[in-house]
TrEMBL record:
Enzyme Commission code(s) on record: 3.6.1.-
Alphabetically ordered keywords of this record: Cytoplasm, GTP-binding, Hydrolase, Metal-binding, Nucleotide-binding, Ribosome biogenesis, RNA-binding, rRNA-binding, Zinc
Top-rank taxon, per record: Bacteria
Residue ranges of domain CP-type G in the record: 98-255
InterPro entries associated with the record: G_CP_dom, P-loop_NTPase, Ribosome_biogen_GTPase_RsgA, RsgA_GTPase_dom
Protein name (record): Small ribosomal subunit biogenesis GTPase RsgA
PROSITE patterns in UniProt: ENGC_GTPASE (PS50936), G_CP (PS51721)
Quaternary structure and partners: Monomer. Associates with 30S ribosomal subunit, binds 16S rRNA.
Keyword check for Nucleotidyltransferase: no
Organism: Novosphingobium bradum
Length: 338
């Protein structure tokens, strides 16, 4: 039987099935609640503690714990033993470093893609986050904040909804408990909802209001350009009154995807279907005769901007896939440094 305290933290049969009888005797499961430099805050049944983040034989970035992870720790010393397999993992290519991955969050049940109704609103950025969510297999909800800053926030809501059939979009005043109540209702007991978005879009304010607390510092956007400033600096999980968890993340000025072929196919399924109808299988969707995509643009059922965004993300995915394949090939050759 699952310990109710572990169930509140998000422990499910998916994780318990990974623990052997010997590990159950010698170790205890804990969840990573926050990540600091060299240390992690963990919680388990009757346990809340800061412990070192280093695990045995942790070679690559994905071998290191991130917020939301479930770990097994030694029962007495609390030394980390291993990370349990993740139900989901959000990651990106580290800014300024094509070779390194940066883990964002693990074991997320839903994703709130938060953007504000000012200069931050960007269909291209929303599509990028949607591709990430679909690739990971987590249900996304677009949350539009600072609706008082837009003359016509409904227009932005409709533009977001048009990105993908059935996409859920919520407009909220992040400072108003009544306005964000429907978001809190989406985070059930033991469930984890992650918030992703740029700096200054109101993620910290949203977390504070949903928790009924002002413990997280917030800052106003700059009036000159509408850009936000970082307030959240630590990826951290926050408990809601009814038992769910909000996972706040620092604002991201740059978000470069890792492999996202499946996510691209789902978010841009309309273009994938059109591409299959082109006369030539290697059509570049430019000036070739019989191009179904160009025909859709001419008919007004597809915009050139959406085609351009698809091309950009597809090229980025191909570059990432090729780079990863090259690194794996070099790693497999004896005497090759990677």
């Amino acid at each position: 039987m699952t310990d109710p305290l572990l169930a509140e933290l998000g422990w499910t049969p998916f994780f318990s099935a990974q623990v052997s009888a010997e590990e159950a005797r010698n170790c205890r499961p804990v969840r990573v609640m926050a990540v600091h430099r060299g240390m992690i805050a963990v919680a388990g049944a009757g346990l809340e503690r800061m412990i070192p983040s280093r695990l045995p034989e942790a070679d690559g970035e994905e071998d290191r714990p991130t917020v939301g992870d479930w770990l097994l720790v030694e029962r007495d010393s609390l030394a980390p033993a291993r990370i349990l397999a993740r139900a989901s993992l959000f990651k990106r290519r580290a800014p300024g470093d094509d070779r390194r991955l940066q883990l964002i969050a693990a074991n997320v049940d839903k994703l709130f893609i938060v953007t504000s109704c000012n200069q931050d609103f960007s269909l291209a950025r929303l599509e990028r986050y949607l591709v990430l969510a679909r690739e990971v297999g987590v249900m996304p909800v677009v949350v539009l904040t600072k609706i008082d800053l837009a003359d016509d926030p409904e227009r932005l809501r409709d533009a977001a909804r048009a990105l993908q059939p059935g996409l859920e979009v919520e407009m909220v005043d992040a400072r108003d408990p009544a306005s964000v109540a429907r978001l809190a209702a989406r985070c059930g007991k033991g469930e984890t909802v992650a918030l992703l978005g740029s700096s200054g879009v109101g993620k910290s304010t949203l977390v504070n209001t949903m928790r009924g607390s002002d413990s997280i510092a917030t800052q106003a956007v700059r009036k000159t350009d509408g850009k936000g400033r970082h307030t959240t600096t630590v990826r951290e999980m926050h408990r809601l009154d009814h038992g769910g968890w909000l996972l706040d993340t620092p604002g991201m000025r740059e978000f470069r995807m890792t492999q996202a072929t499946a996510g691209l196919a789902e978010v841009f399924d309309d273009l994938m279907i059109l591409a299959s109808e082109c006369r030539f299988s290697d059509c570049t969707h430019g000036a070739e005769p019989g191009c179904a995509i160009q025909a859709a643009i001419a008919q007004g059922t597809l915009t050139p901007a959406r085609l351009q965004r698809w091309h950009k993300l597809s090229a980025e995915d191909a570059d990432t896939t090729g780079s990863l394949a090259g690194r794996r090939s070099r790693a497999g050759r004896p005497g090759t440094r990677t």
